[in-house]
Amino acid sequence: MSLPLITVLIANHNNEEYLEGCINSVLVQDYAGPIIVAVIDNGSTDGSWDIVEEKLLEDAPGRKVKREEQNGMLVARASTLNNFSYLCIKTDEALGPSEARNVAIELTDHQSYAYIVLDADDEMYPHKISTLFTKYIEDPTKIGVVYADYDVLHTDSGKIIREYKEPFDRRRLMQECIIHSGSLINSEALIAVKEETGYYDRTMRVCEDYDLWMRITERYLAAHVPESLTLVRVTGDNSSSSVKEKVWEKNWLRVMEKAQQRQNAQAY
Predict the structure, then answer these.
(1) 9 CA to centre of own chain
(2) Would strands 35-42 and 84-91 be described as parallel, antiparallel, or unpaired?
(3) pTM to 2 decimals?
(4) pLDDT digits (tens, 9 = 90+) for 210-251
(5) Dihedral of alpha carbons 99, 103, 106, 108, sign
(6) Residues 212, 217: Cα–Cα separation, whole Å
(7) What is the spatial distance between Cα 20 and Cα 37, in angstroms, rounded to a whole number?
(8) How many helices (H) and strands (E) does the chain have?
(9) Contact (CB, 8 A) for 239 and 212
(10) Which residues of the chain have pLDDT under 70?
């Protein structure tokens, strides 16, 4: 039986230092099905797009590249002789991580069975996609999200700390975001909970993944894999350290307000 198509979403903004390693970590996945590597170079001013060109868009045996302008963006699609294909998007202005992912999701034309988000300064371990997918197909009609543990690398010290996530519990999710941002997302669930502000709420600079998990788990289950599947870098430029505390608080309250609004709407 052939395995379904999975898209890895990489939203990049000025992560030239880590982007090649991020892309390479997708290209060595042991998942035997087709994979779209979707890189959104989101208003970068460094050499990030040069890396995208070199890794994914340069002439190579069996690689066919099509480029076009769409809504002011450069969109390049590349097919290969193996199970990978590439979707590369370059925007002149920084859209923010939410809208960057939304753009890429739309441009995959909903071909994907599932999506996995990978931050441009992080890396997947080679068995991440296959492991998450194996858990997902245990109950694909009910599971909307599959998440796992990860290793946190502090680049200033080189220290790596394992982040152990909890088994899914909706009540705990209401208290804090226990689901990792780099999870596998059932495309059916993603489409089902899309709002006017997008799959990811484009108005939110942080907590956008928390908001999405809250919406999905109102209709679907989330499943946890107790295994570390991602290397997450803490560099000082991540949103967790660069975004002001007031912005985090505002967005967290927005997540709660939206959840309450949905609950009130269902009551009528």
Answers:
(1) 5
(2) parallel
(3) 0.92
(4) 999 999 999 999 999 999 999 999 986 555 555 678 888 888
(5) negative
(6) 9
(7) 12
(8) 9, 11
(9) no
(10) 1, 236-243, 267-268
At which residue do the structure tokens 């982007």 appear? 19
Tokens of 139: 């109950």
167, two tokens: 């088994």
Structure tokens at 17: 């230092």
- How high is the pLDDT of residue 56? 96
Q: If DSSP codes are grouped into helix, strand and coil, which group holds residue 190?
A: helix
SS3 at position 60: coil
Strand extents, DSSP E, the chain: 6-12, 35-42, 64-70, 73-79, 84-91, 114-117, 123-124, 143-154, 159-163, 184-186, 221-234
Locate 138 and state its tokens: 């245990």
Give me the half-sphere count of Cα atoms (radius 13 Å) on the Cβ side of residue 137: 8
User: Which has the closest alpha carbon to 3: 24, 30, 39?
Assistant: 30
